[in-house]
Amino acid sequence: MSIVKLDITKEHCPMTFVKTKIALSKLNSGDILEVLLLEGEPLQNVPKSSAEQGYKVLEVSHVEGQVHKIRIEK
Predict the structure, then answer these.
(1) CATH number of the domain enclosing 10
(2) I need a surface site. Which of 4, 10, 31, 51 has the fewest CB within 10 A?
(3) Would the CA dihedral through 5, 29, 42, 10 be positive or negative?
């Protein structure tokens, strides 16, 4: 199992989930993707869309300011 980090704090919807999905597609089953994103649409859409695509959202946590971290297992 490996953990890959992805920072999409400078991206806007729909690119936030597009970049997340591309990163997830490169992982092996059981690997974890840690995504840093901003609150608002990205925080609402990325976990929801990831779960709808069949990925397991393990954690959503606040980092600082408007930045949040999501851990997604492939």
Answers:
(1) 3.30.110.40
(2) 10
(3) positive
